[in-house]
Amino acid sequence: MKVSEILQVKGNILYTVTPDEAMISAVNVMEDKDIGSVVVMEYGEVAGMLSFREVIKAIHSNGGTLTGTVRKYMDTHPLTVTPETEINEVRRVMLEKHARYLPVMDAKVLLGVISFYDVAKAVLEAQSFENKMLKAYIRDWPAEQEE
Length: 147
Known about the structure:
The chain is α+β, with helices and mostly antiparallel strands. It has a single domain, classed as CBS-domain (Roll), CATH 3.10.580. 46% of the residues lie in helices and 19% in strands. The protein has six helices and five strands, in the order αβαββαααββα. It has helices spanning 3-10, 23-33, 52-61, 70-73, 87-97, 116-139, and strands at 16-17, 37-42, 45-51, 101-106, 109-115. The protein has a three-stranded mixed β-sheet. Strands 4-5 form a two-stranded antiparallel sheet. The longest helix is centred in the last third of the chain and has 24 residues, at 116-139. The N and C termini lie far apart (43 Å). The model has no long low-confidence stretch (mean pLDDT 89).
């Protein structure tokens, strides 16, 4: 299974902010849309990512308040994947790098974001389908013929 297959199922809704937006504005988007990250776009290109991890760091560094702009706290070098990346590679990267959200890029074009949840759901669905097929195959197993 490839990243492109996850994006097909997930759809193409994408939420973005600019680096000069206030952090509270970005957090409001995340809360309103019930998402854990937003892509930071500048001049039509990906400038970074802002996830709840960066939001928590911002609150901590400001003594419990959320001030400043997205630019100050965003991850300026997020890990990315391509539509052709195999799901097992995505799982490995997410686990090794503790990445919960990965932008999907085709060269410099942002296609979407996949989350740890998206990957887990896709793997579970693939395994469930495989289990159903195996059970159906076993149920229809031909009887051995006597010689």
